[in-house]
Amino acid sequence: MIASGLDYRPSFPPDYRPGIGIVGCGDIVRSAHLPAYAKYGVRVVGVFDPAAEATAGVRERFGVGRVFASLDELLAQPEIEVVDIATHTAVRKGLIRRALVAGKHVLSQKPFALDLRSAQELVDEADARGLKLAVNQNGRWSPPWRFATLLVQEGAVGDVVAVTHLYDHNYRFTLGTTFDEIEHFVLWDYSVHWFDITRCWLEGKTVATVRAREYRTPNQPAESKAPWGMWAAIEYEDGSSGIIRGVGSAETARPAKPFWIHGAEGTIRGSVLGSGDRPGVESVELERDGARSSFDLDGRWNPEGFAGTMGELVTAIAEDREPYNSARHNLLSLQLTLAACRSAEEDARPVSLDELTA
Fold first, then answer.
1. Which of 3, 180, 194, 232 is the right S-S partner for 212, CB 3.0 to 4.6 Å?
2. Which CATH architecture group holds 140-300+334-356?
């Protein structure tokens, strides 16, 4: 069987567990980062957040070493080798730079910069200092996406010619929160995961244009600010394509986020964050040469995705190589997302990546 031996689970070096410092202790850190790190034995030396209530109870609940009184205090701690930055995007660039100047490797939440120039500056600075800068694209280690990525990389379906995503979701959780204030929330903050994984599966191909639209859905609450509906289309110069369709107002108790990867020699099908017809089960199906193989997978996006991003960075440090989720590798994901936002602002006009740097 072609998938035998594929290890899609998060992994860490057996003899290297560096100290981790976390900057920002919002909901995502308490609900995802810290539970994942606790499950996989990541050594969190300490955390810092200017809001005292954000760090309340994290030592007792997650075994965090200490709560630092300031960012300077955290960065001055020699035991900390990696800084996990989990703040809002607007302040990430300055925090990443301060961590790099302090000689720390960095794992940044996504998107790691607001624009391409800032992103490239951070990549260059990490390189100049001999440090690793990675992006927390945790969806890459969601078990179905990770398994599918490994299948693609070993040639299970040949040359990938089309990627299709459909996700149903409900954004009521954003009402009254900072997420509802984010411009292009669904494209920029949420769908960046889908742009990123599509970029991974169509690795090495040249993007021609990106088109996108965002819109208010008929059943979206009047008080909500950010549009909940979206679609995006990525066209490649060789005729390959990627399609993302997001239904952000779905009323369902059986959500699913299916994907299809069509290759010249076969097809991969799967779903993340729910499978619809099989609640609680995440699986991937490979079809090739008239035969179908189905694989039920262990784990979930949370916590495995969050453990996977940190595990890859730590492993890359130990092996002195570029991590798969490096900021450099993430530049194209950022370009695709920015192009989609520009296209949505201009009535779904096709946008080339060259326009973003012109």
1. 232
2. 2-Layer Sandwich (3.30)
